[in-house]
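Budget justification aside, the reviewers requested a transparent look at the raw inputs and outputs of the sequence design task funded under Objective 1. We therefore reproduce one unedited record. The lines immediately below are the structure tokens for a 134-residue chain.
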């Protein structure tokens, strides 16, 4: 099923709705590390689940449209930055503890930016070094 066309402003409203109504809910805490979520919209330092935001913006249930390329290109055409969360999920799969939300945000901010692998590796090692001293 194709995704219903909405304006960039409507998606911006969906981002605000996610912050207001969903981000603090138990089922959405740590969503960035959930392997069911492969892509995120990045707005500044904040990450948003791409498919959920499109669902909120269009009123279409997430089960009624495909994630991945169709959703990502839909968002990119409207000027949004979409990042892959694989690096975050893999890193958290290696860690033996559940980090605080603040630590999660730092790692997501670092790993979800489009950079060379060397820069990501250096920044990740720096963060892990910092965490090990806590």
């Amino acid at each position: 099923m194709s995704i219903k066309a909405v304006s960039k402003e409507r998606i911006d409203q969906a981002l605000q709705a996610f912050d207001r109504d969903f981000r603090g809910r138990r089922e959405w805490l740590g969503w960035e590390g959930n392997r069911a979520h492969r892509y995120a919209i990045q707005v500044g330092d904040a990450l948003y689940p791409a498919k959920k935001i499109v669902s909120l913006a269009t009123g279409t249930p997430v089960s009624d449209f495909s994630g991945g390329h169709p959703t990502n290109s839909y968002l990119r055409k409207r000027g949004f930055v979409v990042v892959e969360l694989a690096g975050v999920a893999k890193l958290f799969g290696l860690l033996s503890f559940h980090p605080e939300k603040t630590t999660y945000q730092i790692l997501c901010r670092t790993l979800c930016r489009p950079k060379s692998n060397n820069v990501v590796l250096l920044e990740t090692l720096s963060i892990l070094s910092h965490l090990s001293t806590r």
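The helical segments are 8-21, 50-58, 69-77, 86-94, 101-111, 117-132. The chain has one domain: 8-132. Computational costs for records of this kind are itemized in the attached budget.
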